[in-house]
Amino acid sequence: DVKVTQSSRYLVKRTGEKVFLECVQDMDHENMFWYRQDPGLGLRLIYFSYDVKMKEKGDIPEGYSVSREKKERFSLILESASTNQTSMYLCASSFGAPGTRDTEAFFGQGTRLTVV
Amino acid sequence: RKEVEQDPGPFNVPEGATVAFNCTYSNSASQSFFWYRQDCRKEPKLLMSVYSSGNEDGRFTAQLNRASQYISLLIRDSKLSDSATYLCVVNIGEYGNKLVFGAGTILRVKS
């Protein structure tokens, strides 16, 4: 079974702190994603990566950065956490080159981040 | 305009009912399409891919209309266990697989 593991289920951080959310997948997937999910807004793509050291902005990258130094690990960084970044963060990975039809994304269980 | 838009729901239906969800997408270069299911407090999981010719998996039928940029999901003979949020997903990646999710439609099946 594919496994996507997020380092924490729950986090509480203070405004202004630098926050690292880690995600590891064990299936050698090329693609990895970070989403945040908020009530009524669904999953919104923050960043995704299609290869080591390659990254592309999603729809809401402001206030976030990412790092992909190794294929299996994709980190989301909040440089200076703010209260509006309180959310559920979901990491996902998928196999497949561009245009691959059946690119099922496998998700981690999520990190609920609260910024106080 | 959002890249992927869905019926807001919630849909409240009795067991045995047939229910249909719709989804529209804005990027005509979208490459592939999916429906995901998300249970309460769980992560999303793939329900089915959506092909141009339409495809069926048991009680579930998915349709794609590229000309209208429209995707649908039909659930027949609804079960209590079908209660969940259904997410329409579009792959608009050029260099990789950029998966964009709709906000989801809540389905509640009641006995």
Secondary structure layout plus pairing:
The complex is a heterodimer of chains A (116) and B (111).
Chain A lengths: L3 E3 L3 E4 L5 E7 L5 E8 L3 E10 L2 E4 L6 E7 L2 E6 L8 E8 L10 E3 L3 E5 L1
Parallel strand pairs in A: 2-11
Antiparallel strand pairs in A: 1-3, 3-8, 4-5, 4-9, 5-6, 7-8, 9-10, 9-11
Chain B lengths: L3 E3 L4 E4 L4 E7 L6 E7 L6 E6 L4 E3 L2 E6 L4 E6 L8 E8 L7 E3 L3 E6 L1
Parallel strand pairs in B: 2-11
Antiparallel strand pairs in B: 1-3, 3-8, 4-5, 4-9, 6-7, 7-8, 9-10, 9-11
Order of helices and strands of chain B: EEEEEEEEEEE
Distance between the termini of chain B: 37 Å
**What is the rounded Rg of chain B?**
14 Å
**Poorly predicted residue ranges of chain A:** none
Molecular shape of chain A: globular
Largest interface (C-beta under 8 Å)? A-B, 34 and 27 residues
Helical coverage of chain A, percent range: under 10%
Strand content of chain B: over 45%
Q: Summarize the main sheet of chain A.
A: 7 strands, mixed
Strand content of chain A: over 45%
> CA-to-CA gap between the ends of chain A?
37 Å
- For this entry, what is the oligomeric state of its chains? heterodimer
User: Overall 3D geometry of chain B?
Assistant: globular
